[in-house]
Amino acid sequence: MTLERSMGLGSLVFYGTGTILGAGISVVIGEVIGEAGALAPIAYGLAGLVAVFTALSFAEIAARIPTAGGPIDYVEEAFGSPALSALVGWLLIVANIVSGATITTGFVSYLNSFLDVPFWLATSGLVALLGAISIAGMKQSAWFMSITTIVGMITLLIVLYLLRDSLLGWPQRLVEGEGIGLASAVGAIFAGAFLAIYSFIGFGDVAQTAEDVKDVKSTLPRAMWIVLALVFAFYLAVSVALGGRSDLDAIASADAPLVYAATSESGFPALPLAIASLFVIVNGAVTQVIAASRLMLDLGRDGRPGAMAWMGKVNKRTRTPIQATLACVALVLALALLVPLGQLASGTSLAILAVFIAVNAALFRLKRRDQPGGVPDMPKFVPVAGAVFCLAAVAGQIVLWGLGGV
Question: What are the residue boundaries of the structural domains of the chain, listed by start?
């Protein structure tokens, strides 16, 4: 039984935009502000530089090898090593599951900003909802995510309007510097950038929808480029708007950073923005569960090292891997209940960077072998730059850990 090809360009753009924005702009941006302060836009710019070359690599390699396994099959095709491809697959599964837990934790923080619900109850209820949406079918999930993405983008435009003064005032705040020295500024930017990289990992999830997409060789690369442009514009604008504020410590410590920043001085009611943000966050969490279950499916059906046969089964009625999905949501629930948000985001970033290095190396090797027609033809420096930037990000994080940072 195979997956159903039900997604076109529009639904794929909404799917990708929703997961990337949901994962980062509502959940992790407070953590980035806490590390980088007014320098947060620079941190997001640096994270975008790390991500963009790898995203371009994904645009070509996903069209070359359009499978639900994504990086698993890319590495297998390039290097012919089942063990290495399985390692990449398991790393990516861990990253998606940890990301799902990160977003779940952020959801509960937003919920508690206006409704007092026990943490364990809110977390368990959300994870059960994630499982139900993921199991229902890709077409149903895509419709849900399209609606919530539209709600999210409108919400962000409202937030930017409410923060227009700080948006325009950020350059002056940056020039003032508030006594930040060069060394501390560089450290703050790199610490913030490493967390911000988490905000861009969703384009890998877009690639993993390959078996759900119509006319995949044309649709997938186009969707990738549109999604990247949209999310980078939103991240940069929102981080500038927040970075121009004087109450950065309060934003960093708020349960709902965007809602607090947009409403604390404007008088705009917080409840509508908080509810809209919840929809966006659910959107991102659904994608992580879907991506992890698709990876389990690929590992299981191909009999790769560490996989079990039940992981590769697709339900005849829903055309989704129900058993793999249930395993994923169980792990998401355990992590969300037990591990703090900042540690979850940092762990996700490190795992995903390792996978990105492997994907860039795979594309470079495949391009040296041949260049098929009908797929994007990225210059060879694109995967090289992608791998170098990802390696630099890993090295930077190791240095930060050594200095007692994030």
Answer: 9-402
Characterise 137 by phi-psi region: left (phi > 0), alpha (psi -120 to 50), beta (else): left
How far apart are the C-alpha atoms of 65 and 361, rounded to whole Å?
15
Residue type present at position 300: G
Are 313 and 323 spatial neighbours (Cβ–Cβ below 8 Å)?
yes
CA distances from 30 to 109, 127, 251 (A): 11, 23, 6
Question: Could you give the C-alpha distances from 15 to 4, 282, 287, 310, 367, in angstroms and in order?
Answer: 16, 12, 8, 27, 29
Nearest to 331 by CA among 21, 3, 90, 87: 90
Q: 246-271, pLDDT tens digit by residue?
A: 888 899 888 788 889 999 888 899 88
CA dist 375 and 119 (Å) reads: 47
Count of residues in the chain: 406
CATH 3.40.50.720 fits 9-402, yes or no: no
Show the tokens assigned to 383: 């995967």
pLDDT digits (tens, 9 = 90+) for 15-31: 888 878 765 677 678 88
Rounded to whole angstroms, how far apart are CA atoms 295 and 351? Answer: 15
C-alpha span between 234 and 135 (Å, rounded) = 30
Reported as a single tens digit per residue, the pLDDT across 74-108 is 999 999 998 899 999 888 888 888 888 888 887 88
